[in-house]
Design goal:
Blueprint (H helix, E strand, L loop, with lengths): L1 H30 L2 H4 L7 H20 L3 H20 L5 H20 L7 H22 L8 H31 L8 H4 L3 H17 L1
Helix pairs in contact: 1-3, 1-4, 1-9, 3-5, 3-7, 4-5, 5-6, 6-7
Length: 213
């Protein structure tokens, strides 16, 4: 039984980690296009991509109830990114950001233990984790003498408030849909526990990251 639980955790980490990796590669590339960058902080990766990553981590936690697996997801996605960075001699900074995201969210979720994905507790987990992540990431992004500068405040404060605002709006819409619209109850276990699906998705995440680097 214990062996089966370990295998289920492994496959679940692979599945949601692959989803995160695919989103990181595809949406991350789109958000860095010149046409999108015109939106500035309102359309940046920090305000859009990071909240989506936290949402995927939240889905994993809802499915598994295992906070430690969130950190494993971060290691998987950062590992895929690191392979690509090594091949093309790119900066490993994005890998560090991914690890920080997963560790921040895993720590908060382990403490708060939210039971539902669409709930005030999960929203609180996001808000705290996003704040912790941005403050931690600023040690990589900025030199010490830049702390407190206008650029640092935009990154660590304003983008945080915008991301939390986006999450609140999307969460309220999801709550209304869940409350008033009858949606099918999808059993992901049937998909996740077929080993070839998580493995194929992980390979797809690697390919997407290689192609869109």
């Amino acid at each position: 039984m214990k062996k089966n639980n370990h295998m289920k955790t492994f496959l679940t980490v692979l599945f949601f980690g692959a989803v995160w990796g695919i989103v990181e590669a595809t949406l991350g590339t789109i958000l860095h296009l010149p046409a999108i960058r015109i939106a500035g902080i309102w359309g940046g990766a920090t305000t859009i991509l990071v909240p989506i990553a936290f949402a995927i981590m939240g889905m994993y936690y809802k499915q598994s109830g295992n906070a430690r697996g969130i950190a494993y997801m971060g290691i998987l996605v950062a590992g895929i990114k690191a392979i690509v960075c090594a091949i093309f001699a790119l900066s490993l900074r994005p890998c560090a950001y991914i690890l920080l995201e997963s560790l921040a969210f895993a720590g908060v979720v382990a403490f708060v233990k939210p039971k539902e994905l669409i709930s005030w507790k999960m929203f609180g987990c996001f808000a705290i984790a996003n704040t912790v992540y941005l403050l931690s990431a600023s040690f990589i992004q900025f030199a010490p003498f830049q702390y407190g500068s206008a650029k640092w405040i935009e990154y660590a404060v304003y983008s945080n408030l915008i991301a939390v605002g986006y999450t609140l709006v999307v969460g309220l819409i999801a709550y209304l849909i869940k409350t008033f619209v009858k949606t099918p109850n999808i059993k992901l276990d049937k998909v996740i526990l077929k080993p070839y699906i998580p493995v194929m998705m992980t390979c797809l995440a690697l390919v997407c990251t290689l192609v869109l680097k």
